[in-house]
Structure formats: structure tokens, C-alpha cells
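Self-study notes.
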Amino acid sequence: METNNSFNERFVFEGKAKTWSLIAIVIGIICIVLGFVLGDGERTFSNLLLMGYYFTGVCAAGAVFCAIQYAAQAGWSASMIRIPQAFIKVLPIAGAILVIIIAAGISITHDVTTNGVTVNQPYLYAQWATKGMTDPASKLYDTIVTGKSSFLNQPFFFTRLIGFLVLYSALGLMLVKYSNNEDEIGGMSNYKKSFVMACVFLLVFGLTFPLFSFDVIMSLEARWYSTMFGWYNLAAMWVSGLAVLTLITIMLKEKGYFSWLTEDHMHNMGLFMFAFSVFWTYVWFAQFLLTYYANLPEEAIYFYKRWEPQFKPWFWLSLIINFPAPFLVLMARDSKRKMKLLKWASIIIIVGHWLDYYIMIMPETVGPDGRGFSYEEIGIFIGFAGLFTFLVLSALSKFKSLVPKNHPFLEESLHHHI
């Protein structure tokens, strides 16, 4: 901290950042409307689900980051904690958008003709939400889906979905509340509450997020399952959230904010991204290897779909972008201390995990006969990026100070050196 005035520094959300984020939102809305007007609802809903899930996951990663710092009683991150706290404040909005997307995708139906048979099915979760799947008298009756119907039914599905998101938001917002109270009254009482709440959050999140990913993503393919899928998604959520957090921190520093953050703080963020890129690869490979080795049709179908000509190049490109690229870029100590290099590494990981989610979702929802990348993918990504930027920076501007001035480890953070 260079001067005492830094304790009162506030973020002002205005100028180009605000203008461009609003333009990006408008671009996204136009692409969504075009998708529906031009009769490409299946692809549009798929991209909305992809970005809604990504958006929610990144915001949840902010809560995970804060909880880890409090639970570990880490000092180095105290002076940058306002940024992930801004993510937390956006989490309820992101969760609400995701619920709306899923509810609309299940409620709105369209006719699909396969082998001369026309079926009226929803745009999302057609494998289990289509009427008649669990009715023995229906020509659509499916014994596998029927066996899972006690879990995969709409009332229980939405109860879980909303319950998880409310829990994540409520517990995360308590961490923000305690931090704000700490600034107002000082003392250790609110920090101790934060410690307890962080431990509760991590326990709840760790136990429920795999179920959350089962519901939102894996249930798109209701006949298939993988016990590794939840941890694979947890790793993807965490490393992509770290990348977004790092990118926003660097961009704020470039604009003159958070001047007290040094290359030592960014080194820690680089270490996080490096380590969890490796962890994501470990979980990805574990799921792939077990499926490949067993070679059971009911399991291998997942990868078979992703090796269709339309998706196979993106399948392997996703692996290359998400492991060798960040691994080689961030392996050296010096690379983690160079802002420009770290910035590009963050962008690579963000794009890479968008592609990772694309590969999870599109082969089932759009299928191998659909066209490749188009304006929906690009425009909806831009729109959600603009919405995220607008909401997070708006939330950041609401803090009375960018420095949690009464955080007990603030001095340690300001003098952090590795």
C-alpha cells in the first residue's frame, strides 16, 4: 500500500468498460432472437445452457475462492478479496438466469422426426423430459429412463437445482456480509464467523456440486452415466473461474486499480491455474481411460458421439488447449510473474473450457447432423461475457473500498513476497 488514501480507493464503473459491456449484451440478445426467429431453437437453447452453466460456475468459483482463503486462514489474498466477492454478489442473478434457461428449454417443445416417426419433445433434456418416456403404454417407453425416473423427474429436478443455487448464493453472500461488517466495526468476531461459514460452504459445495453437474449437464444423456463426471466438472468450473478471476484482476491493474498487488500475488494465481489445469487433465484422463479400457457400449457411446466427424477435431483441440498450452506457458516461475503472459494464459483457459463445455453439450443436443460453429456460438458467448463484466464491475463499484481495511491479515497481504 503506497498511501493511506489507498484504504479508501473505490472502483468507478464508467467509460469504455461500461459501454463495451452493454454493446456485448446487445449483440448477445440479437443473436438469441435471430436463432429463434430463424428456427434454430435447438442450437440456441444449447448455447444458452452452455453459457448459463459457465456463467454460474465462474460466479460460484468466486465463492469457492473466498471460502478457501478464509478456511485456510490465508493472508496473501486479503487485499484482492473484493474481486471474488463481486463474483459472489452476481451469483444469485447467474443462478436465476440458468434456472430460467432450463425451465424454458424443458417447457418449450418442437417436433422431431426420426426414422419416419415424429415426436414432440423439449429442446433440452429430451431423453428424460419427453412425455411418454416412462409410460409402458407409450411407443416412447424407455426402461433405462424409467429406472431413473424417481431421480429424473421435473419436480425433484427443479427442487434440487434451485435448492443448490440458493444454498451457494446464501452461504456466499454471508461471507460478503461478514467482510463488510468487519470493515464497519473491526475486531475478530466477523472474521471468526467467516471462517466457520467458509468451512460450511466448502463442505456443502463439495458434496453437492457433482450432483449439480449431473443434473444440468450429464442428464442431457439420461441413458449414460459416469461417476467421474461430477469431479471432472468441478475441476473445469474451478480452473475456468480462476482464469476469469486472474484476467479481471490484471485488467483492473492495467487501469490503475489494485496498485498494491504485485507480481508475487499474481504468481500465486498463476500457480493455482497451473496446478488445477493439471488436475483437470488428470480427472479427464481418468474418465476417458476407464471408459476406453472397459469398452462397454453403454459407456463408450459418450465418446463415440464426440468422435463424429463434426466434433472430433474440437474434442482433441479442447484437450490440447486445456492441458499442454497452460502447462507449457505457466510451468516456468518467470512466466507466472509476467502480467501479459499470465493474461494470455487466462484467455487460453477461458476459451479452452468454453470448448470443453461445448463438447459436453452439443453432441447430444444438436447432434452430428447439425452445422458447426455459427453466429449463435460466437454471439451468445459475447453476450454473456458482456453481462458478466457489467454485473461484476457494477458489484465491485458498490464496495465502499477495494481494500478490506480491517481484515486481520491485510498487512501480510500488502507485504506478500515469495
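Second protein, same conventions, sequence then structure:
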Amino acid sequence: MNMYFYGTMLDKTQKDEPAGRSIRQVYQADAVSALTPLSSDHWESFHTYRLEWMPGTEGYLAWFLDGKKLYDIPAFSIQGATGAQIPEEPSYLILNTAVSTTWGFPQACPEGCACDCFDCAKPECRCSLPVGLCEMLPASMLVDYVRVYQLEDDERHFLGCDNPRYPTRKFIQAHRWRYQRYGPPSLPPSLPSDDEDVPLLPILKGTGACTGEDDCGPGGACHARKKTCVCREGWTGPQ
């Protein structure tokens, strides 16, 4: 995880966290990261990446590549170093191909280069970028599958997105303008009619179009008459 793109905005002059940052606001980084070198094979064939996330004082974070543990950190280390904890709130996954100008570059700024711009479209910026980076863009990533597992008999693994200890739905409903794509952040706007402006969209359980069983994946079956997917026990999503 890249600490430069994750954290909490703080502003002592305002009670509520604003939708946009101002010059008076600071950025509190709150992330754990480690680097793993990849070989050319990682760009030519599929590999399995795994993250184990166990909240609580006895919890931990652990990263794996093709079944081999790369790095782990126990909860007490985070608590002791920063006073923070492994979040128990509902979270989401981001899979991206972000390229940062301050993180992950394999070399220092070359001698004689200002390194004040990082734009492949501008010739004057090329010296500040790793050799071959611009030639490989635009980059793409092919994801075969994403699977999320939770422990059913462990109270630390609450099943769902609205943990009673952290009432996510109630908070979003009370501060819906913070989660809308458009509209002024100062006052709640009138209820929008466009789905783009609705902060809470329904989680579909089935209803995805299908012509056969293969269209619904391992967690669903295709309804012969309606031609829509029906979820099996413990599964959700349109297909």
C-alpha cells in the first residue's frame, strides 16, 4: 500500500472533515507497506497474491506471493509504534496500476536532471523517469479472480459491511453528501434522482443475465425460465 495516497485529512479549524483539502489542512499517513522485487515472469503469467487481515489486539497483517509469506506485522507492533490499530471497520479492496513519482522508483535522480516533472509526454521530463518506463505505457493488468474469505465462528470477522460496533450505513445516511460524486459539501443537497449521486447503491444478489450455468460462476445457478442468476447460500453479486 502506498502511504502517499492513503490517510486522514485533519483540520483543527473545522469540526467536520471537509470534502476538499485546503492550505490549512494536513495529511496524516496511515499505512503499512513493503517492497517485493518481481521478475519478468510476473508480467508474463498469472501469480497469486494474498493478504491475511486479522483485526484485534492479537491480530496481524501478512502478505503472500504464490503461497509463500513475504512479510507480516503483528498488531502490537503497530500499536507500540504509532498507537494505531488494525481497522475493524468494513473495508474494500483496490487493485490498480498506479505509478508514483515518489515511491518505488529503482534509482535516484540522475546527475544533471532537475527531476521536477514526471510526464512521459514532455521530453524535458524524460531524464527523471526510469529507463523504459515511458515505452511500456499505457500499462494494463489482467485479473483472473478476486476471492474474499471470512471466519464464520470468529467475532473479529463480522460477515457483512455494517458491523454493529461500527454502524457504517447509519453514518453514511447521516452524512450522505460526503459520499456523493457531485454537490456542495457544505450543506446536504436535496435528494438526487441520478444514481451517480446516490451514496448507497443496493448490493445485487443474483438477477444478472445468463444463458447457462457457466454465466453465473461457482456461486450461482441460471434460472431456466427467467434467464437470470440465482445465488447459492453464502454468495452474493449479480452473477
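Instructor comment on the second fold: The first helix runs from residue 75 to 82.
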